[in-house]
């Protein structure tokens, strides 16, 4: 196994336990384990979750699923930090070999959760693109050997499709009275615009910086505010700066219009 996949020794230890636990649960069905998301894009820090993907030969059977559920019920209860900041899925290898497999549900654990669910969360064009182009192999074959290329038009259209309802969709689950949610909305809009324009996927920081350079200069103060405030992390009691939520909604509408 890759002994140093990240710059955090504690996280590397947690990933070792995750991988060995998954191998034990899955047996011969285990293909490989990878990092995608912010750590794969070179932007992971202590304000990031750690996005993983374990590739399996076939959908886990009842015994394998029960063992995986036990693993993820136990991991977040351990002392430490990074064991409570994992997010990822158990991806069926056949689904990854064709764009036709996009959107199929895999076993998924949400950020910090101790419960697996069936979800399409990690089976999206942008997650596959990051995995293939930048994925960090923990153990197993190189990611390009297990995931097919994502067609450019599929990646761009997936980014464009959600923009019309982005503010509604984000603020439906993320309270607008929380500052983190204001920042999240701006970041998602910037990342979507980056993908529509470039056909690639950027980290949160890089998408904000790109938008400052390539978007309407009038949005720079908002983008700078979100970039500067990211290190504040998630505080459910911290309200947005005055006027910033309204500006975030307007930015999302601007991005939907120009995309």
UniProtKB/TrEMBL annotation:
Residues 145-228 form the Adenylyltransferase AadA C-terminal domain. Keywords: Transferase. InterPro entries: AadA_C (IPR025184), NT_sf (IPR043519). GO terms for molecular function: transferase activity. It comes from the Bacteria. This is DUF4111 domain-containing protein.
